[in-house]
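new request in #modeling-help
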Amino acid sequence: MALLEARNVQKHFGSVEVLKSIDLDVEQGQVVALIGASGSGKTTFLRCINLLEQYDAGSIALDGEVVGFTSDGRRRPLSERRVSAQRARIGMVFQQFNLFPHMTAEQNVMLGLTKVQGKAKDEAATIARHWLDRVGLSERRDHYPYQLSGGQQQRVAIARAVAMSPRLMLFDEATSALDPELVAEVLAVIQDLAKSGMTMLLVSHEMLFVRDVASKVVFMDGGRIAQAGPPEEVFHHPENERLKTFLGRFHGMFGQPV
Amino acid sequence: MLNYNFNWSVIWRNWDKFVDALLLGLGMAVVSLLIGTLIGLLVAYARGAGPRWLRWPAFVYVEFIRNVPLLLLVFFVYFGLPELGIYGLDKVQSFVLTLSLYAGAYMAEVFRAGLASIPRGYAEAARAIGLRPLQRQRYVILPVMFRITLPSITNNLVSLFKDTSLAAAIAVPELTFTARQVNANTFRVMESWLTATALYLFTAYAIAIVLRLVEKRYAVIR
């Protein structure tokens, strides 16, 4: 059984079918990258996994437990309480960081530990410091978000998510809102996490990074998975025409794409 | 003015009265702000996220209060409630009730705008770490909302403090009423009203300055 199993996931906004039928397995320890043009459904799929969006059909299961719905076949939505507990096992990092602006870096990391996991303040503070140290921000733990650069904020956001010891981490274009010179520090932190065996699903436009860090690359197009496989295969032997066109934009980056 | 001979001794003789009056006004403003904040929060949530049957009364309450003169509301509550069989409120309580209802309507609008202005990402981040709905409000949404609306709350306190002068109309011994009494008893017109004016001006300005400092302390969203 894979850690994450998505089966026939569908989602529409009004009359627009954003996800037509997504099937995807993510194994424990795997780093899966979702690539594709904007509007292809990558972000929506990611948001369905921790129920920031409710999917309309199909199922997403984490450790065999369906996310957001009863698994008795009747597909009734779970209570907010149950859904919140499920979300706590999935970490998410957003494009816009979304740090709580009224809390210091350390308080940001501690909130979930104390209020969701019920840890004592001391223990939570120790964990928070450990992770802020790990992302290279031990000097900044008493800083408020507005006192931090974009790259630093995003690293705090990553610490906030991984401190919860999630089963799975979701990265939604974690570097897209950053100034170019700040991208590398955030990618380094993500790479460090990947090496430590964290299971991750990431949406990214950083193709070189994806090639280096991902064990599986999934190309999405029009709400479907058009091609999936190891990075060498997807980047160097694209079969899907749309994928070829998509990669053409990054021409030269991977040697000769076809 | 040129022929007016100032005699401030009547003010010193009545100084205690002025101080008590000032404190009463301040107290009524602060209590009304606190109750009004509570009402405002409930009404803002009712209008923003409440069930349909609650939205309509919340809307009527806010628009009624905001479009009727405060003095009329003061009379309405003070003279009207006993007619409706509700006794037991003294003048001060009656006025505080009125001012609280008045403040509540304005605070509801402030909070509604504040809640609407919070970027959606904060609530999503709170959901993503597994906070339950009430926890999200308590630890993320409300603290951020209060910081965003702090300048408006400050302005409201200054306004409410000045509005306490309307309590003179129902003989609450606050500053305006006291000035009128001293004036009537001593015929020292300028001294009485200048004293009241100076006390209002000074206090209102002091409130604003102190709260600006508080705002600065909490202005973490830039």
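bot summary: The mean pLDDT of chain B is 93.
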